[in-house]
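Work Package 3 (structural annotation) set out to generate three-dimensional models for the target panel prioritized at the project kickoff. During this period the team completed the workflow that converts sequence records into discrete structure tokens, so that structures can be stored uniformly alongside our sequence database. As a representative example, we reproduce one entry of 491 residues exactly as it appears in the project archive.
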Amino acid sequence: MVSITKPLRIKLIEHTTKSHISFKSHQAIVLIVTFLAHYTSYHAARKTTSIVQTALDPQTPDETEQSGSVLLSWVLGTGWAPFDGSNGTGLLGDLDLAFLFVYAVGMFFSGHIGDRMNLRIFLTIGMVGTGLFTSLFGVGYWANIHVFYYYLMVQMLAGLFQSTGWPSVVAVVGNWFGKSKRGLIMGVWNAHTSIGNITGSLIGSYFLKYGWGWSMVVPGLMIAFVGVIVFMFLPVDPESVGVKRDEDESGQAKKGVTEPLFGYRVFEAWKIPGVAPFAFCLFFAKLVAYTFLYWLPFYISHTAINGEYLSNTTAGNLSTLFDVGGVVGGILAGHISDRLDARAITAASFTYFAIPALYLYRSYGHISMSVNIILMLIIGMFVNGPYALITTAVSADLGTHRSLKGNSKALATVIAIIDGTGSIGAAIGPVLTGYISTESWSAVFTMLMLSAFVAGLFLTKLVVSEVTAKCQDSQGGSSGGAPPFDVVEEV
């Protein structure tokens, strides 16, 4: 037996330790850069559109706040043609639909394209392109552009470039983190959407007083700048920087590098137990969430709170509390689902609780500022809770389902299916709101409550299965529940 001398043993330990530290440091860089790259900057650029809407379309305040023929005196601004007419909200809804529809369709293909080129370059192109077309929307302010189709085309191209974000980030993180770390990483990412929305709201609201064009150009320049950071610092995978993988990160993650992202057939991925019901649930959950994303500042500025109307800037700042509640809701939903080992029960419960929360906000949110704030935090928690849970922990569970037989790249395919389906709902909600709100905001909230109810209904079969499994475990004295979604054999 060959013995290893003490000096040689010390050198081997030092080499292993340095390699481990190098790998961990690169993982930290990946987390920080992708955090900035995806939801924080993408959503910040996306959220500003809702802030700008209040300046583009200063329509008559909520008719329910009028008293006879006397209208509470306030000024929203002069507006911006062609959005300042009687069909202004409808045109803004068309912009939202165009952006989100192209984004949803692009989501199904961006991962496939990104898998065939360097992800660092692909993500950089997406971010710089997003920054360019977001800024071009704002350029219409100084160029005095009043052609609707200019803004429509710019929004469509912005949506196309934004669709590159999620699949690219998933692929990069998948290269650096194996299955054992994936749940933790997704849990950390739960706050990305809300942080991005809050950042976009604050930036958009601040620059609105200097002209609505600045509210689009500044976030556009920001995401383009972060795109340059991605190009300079993002390591796509350990091999690209000559770093050896940790033992617990090598197996499945490395295996998937040579497999096509869409190598696992999409139709087969739909058959994975739980994918279809959660995808359709997210369709309606995202419909509700994105309606608030795009229209909450507009609704607040057009509704009197304690008899007074808020300025566009104040309404935009106040709307960030919805996302603060969303951060709490995402963390709470994830924690509860982990403790109960019941993703479907948790998601369905949150969507059902969102219904009375929406009703209370519409009925009593105008009483006072404190009541409005409390109710907004509550609806943010219940609306964004299931949205965050499904796009993170649930997708990770389904993407590593035992039926995939170790195909690590199927994770991105499943996420594309679930989030892409949800994004279609996100496209429909804002455009419906644009037209329905011209008649009544009460009708808008009725639509949102019905959508939340339907979202919960799609999880009924999974909820029953989870309850049945837990009852059987309790009767049989088992210490643990069935693996997530394995109790459902067919969809």
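The chain has 17 helices and no strands.
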